[in-house]
Amino acid sequence: MTGFAVEMSAALNVVLLLMLVAIGLAVAHTRNLLTAILLMSVYSLVSAAWLMVMDAADVAFTEAVVGAGASTIILLGAILLTRGATARVDWRAMVAPALLAVITGGLLIYASLGLPEFGDPSSPANAYVGRMYLERTGEEVGPHNVVTAVLASYRGFDTLGETVVIFAAGLGVALMLGFGPRATLAPAPEKMGDHHVVLRVAAKMLIPLITLYAFYVQFHGDLGAGGAFQAGVILAVAVILYGLVFGLRETIAAVPVKAARSVAALGVMLYAGIGVICMVNGGAFLDYDYLFSPQVEAMIPANLLGDPHEEHHWGQHFGILFVELGVLLTVSSTIVTIFYGFAGRSIDAEEAKR
Predict the structure, then answer these.
(1) What angle do CA 8, 13, 18 make, to 5 degrees?
(2) What is the pTM of this model?
């Protein structure tokens, strides 16, 4: 039975990889931008399924939420500023890029031949630092999900860099596209037609559920697949859905552009501020064991998180909690800011024609 399961898993991997190749070729072949965006969304969903088969639940979660969710919505907003189809290019101009792509792909395949076997316990990823994470996470950090411990504690400085990069991306969109009068737009006086009633009612039912699920993913990261990056994208999708259904003017009135940008900066400051507090208390930057002084830590009830006899790492727990909150604020606000930047350009175009 075990051998049969291994064969079925290998066959499923081959099928999913062939689907990815077919979808990639379809994306390269199509000239319609809307079709290309939808195909890329399907590509992300298939990639997420393949990652689940490979037992990479956290990565699959991120691919599904970011690749198939937020990226698709932002690209759909971006094509409002362009033509519906790409300009045709002479095939001779594509020879050099195609040759470069083939050479790069061949080098990647050649390099992959030297990789260790999947699941090999003696591979570098499993034999050195990876094994240390598995053996020492429960004793040193505490979360049941080792991925959360690695990203938010052991490699907290790297994750801070990723958060700053996300914030910088939103800032770059704001500087390139600008917002102009959209930052103070009042709700539009005209009402939506009756043919939008079902859509509005469905959105009002889904948006609270999406928001609730975002917070579930945020706080479930200690136990299983989830975390602040995924939760931030899901929370931003709730705001974007509101904008797609009820209009950009109403969304900006509810979540102002200045507020979105300020919250994105606040998230980075919160993350970095936790590291500064640790330094003030005598530890290293982002060394959560120094987040609380011994006097403050002694005041925390032993049964705050369950079994009072279980050893709790309060500094690590609350440090991860606060930095994950900072990531949530930055990711969600940055994606909303990018959406405003792209979707809002259509308003300028419409007002320019009047």
Answers:
(1) 125
(2) 0.78
